[in-house]
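Team,

Forwarding the record for the chain on the shared tracking sheet. I've put the sequence and predicted structure together so nobody has to dig through attachments.
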Amino acid sequence: MVASVLAQNDAATTGKLHPTTGRALDRIWTCQREDGGWTWLDENEPPSEIDDHYGVTMAAIGVGVAPGNYRDTPAAKKGLEKIRQYFRDNPPANMHHRAMKLLASLRVDGIMTDAERQDVVKGLFALQKPDGGWGLATLGNWKRSDGKPQDMKSSDGYGTGFVIYVLRYAGVPANDPRLQKGIAWLKTHQRVSGRWFTRSMKKDSKHYITHSGTAYAILALAACGEADVVGQAK
């Protein structure tokens, strides 16, 4: 995760691969399993700490965007081929997997075809709610640790921000009426605290996913040219 974030930061700022980033990226290949995956956190904390798939997509994204043609180094070429094999052997289990795989496929070739990406786009639009937003619970098939049902009806910060971010990177124009409905939801659902709330997919005590949801809300607004017009809701 650290290597991926550092690589994305280098790409977005200096455009040069920092030596520390290069060492971190080289390190990931020493931890990669033969099946192409990594031993990942499984704390039943969807969507990032529940299965190995998330780690594989984050590795692909980081290596794919790393400056200096890092992806063409011998170690990266070998590791990326294992990643492609992992995706072939482990089909996405839910829509969140599919969306993350789409993001990875836009950075590394041989992961998804254009037709497969468009199928994910259609699937994401099909999950849009009447109020214009999306809900994280509908992107997965996760069971809660507290035994309560998932909220399949409400929109939230993570679902809406993440989906809009993915759709924009998949080529959907910012002025698409469906995206504009989602942007309108974000503009009217920021809390006074500054966050966009997302209920935990695990249990109703620590809604840590709200942090990620708020970040994705900001990324979605920025991707649609709306980052400077965020309002506050009740």
